[in-house]
User: What shape does this take?
Amino acid sequence: MYVLENSLYQVNPLTAMAKAGQVIPNPKSGETFHFIKTAADTGGEYLQFTLT
Assistant: This one.
């Protein structure tokens, strides 16, 4: 099991996949990723997210 530094998520960074609705904050930069649609949702066509 892998733990990303400063993260609440325990994931393997080599195989982890974002999911629609997932929010990932970056405390160092203050940015937050909000995943809207992923490849799984769009048949591999695209990834849609906001970065605030």
In short: The chain has a mean pLDDT of 80. Helices lie at 39-42.
